[in-house]
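Re-run with default settings, no changes from the original entry. Doing this only to confirm the output is reproducible before filing.
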Amino acid sequence: YLTCENDNPNDAEVRFFIEGARIAPALAGSSAPRERAALVFDGRDDAELADARAQWKELRDLGYSLVYHQQSESGGWEEKAREPKA
């Protein structure tokens, strides 16, 4: 299910957020995914990187458990940072 709104009619376990979509509002109420949310951004784009960092801080301050993965040169994914649930 693709949407530009904060709805989750299929009760998705995972929701992906792209192009600066705000995660925190979507985690409230019935629109929250059952398991996890993923913010996908281009770390080579200064604006996207700044937005991702701001969202990380916002979600950390709201008490969410966070994990940051970065794509490696070989195309795999490496965990780079982890914030336990507050």
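The radius of gyration is 13 Å. Residues 19 and 41 are 7 Å apart (CA to CA).
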